[in-house]
Amino acid sequence: MCTRIAFFSQADLARLLPGLIDSLPVEERFNVAPSQHLKVVLNVGQRELVEARWGLIPHWAKDPSIAQKLINARSETIGEKPSFRLAVRRQRCLIWVSGFYEWTSLPGRKGRCPLFFTLKSGDPFAFAGLWNRWKAPDDDQPLLTATIVTTSANALIGLYHNRMPVIVPPSRYEEWLTPEECDPQDFASLFQPYPPGEMQVRFVSTMVNNPRNDRREVLEEA
Fold first, then answer.
1. What is the pLDDT of residues 112-133, one digit of tens each?
2. In the chain, how many H helices and how many E strands?
């Protein structure tokens, strides 16, 4: 699962996605948790950076608390699960990050130790995501929500966890963002683990364990 991300490189997105419209305030986030806001680009309309709440609420849901269980979507079953099968066909998005966190146990250490995964290039990158606008019966304002698609871990992440987010390479952004209805099988090659040689990892401060610690110090190398 992917349960925590950081995003502090908003100014670099225009270089990675030409034509991007970014009217959001520049905001550095170092410890984004589920139910908080992600920066996303939807596969509808213009290529615009918008915010979506982390945790998908399907259109048929009556209780928004279901979002707590739908922060990730397994690529292997995405076309079968009622929560995701419509979204993967029609409602795809890019979820922008500067890096993401995972935790592992170490001999002689109490508790689990946090790690931070990034690209070696230092560029921000995009997860494959799904989105939906959910409307509560007593609220006229729909809520934009999103989930992160995951796959089996590559050799680097597999040292610490058996799953990782699906990372979309820039050459395939437009493919994932097509507004056309697609069969999930069309994305089988995209759902493969990202090349481990293009990624790096380091241990970071245990301050990141508390999502209220949303400041640069959580990235200090441990």
1. 999 999 999 999 999 999 999 9
2. 3, 13
What is the DSSP secondary-structure string of 78-125? TTTSTTTHHHHHH-EEEEEESEEEEEE--TT-SSPEEEEEEETT---E
Known catalytic membership, residue 2: yes
Q: Which of 2, 113, 175, 217 is catalytic?
A: 2
CATH class as words, domain 5-219: alpha beta
Mean of the per-residue pLDDT values for the chain?
96
pLDDT given for residue 12 in this prediction:
93
Report pTM: 0.97
Joined together, the tokens standing for residue 16 give 């990675």
Active site residue 93: no
Q: Which of 102, 175, 181, 221 is catalytic?
A: 102
Residue 35, number of CB atoms within 10 A of its CB: 15
Paired with 39 in beta bridges are 51
pLDDT tens string 123-177: 999 999 999 999 987 777 899 999 999 999 999 999 999 999 999 999 999 999 9
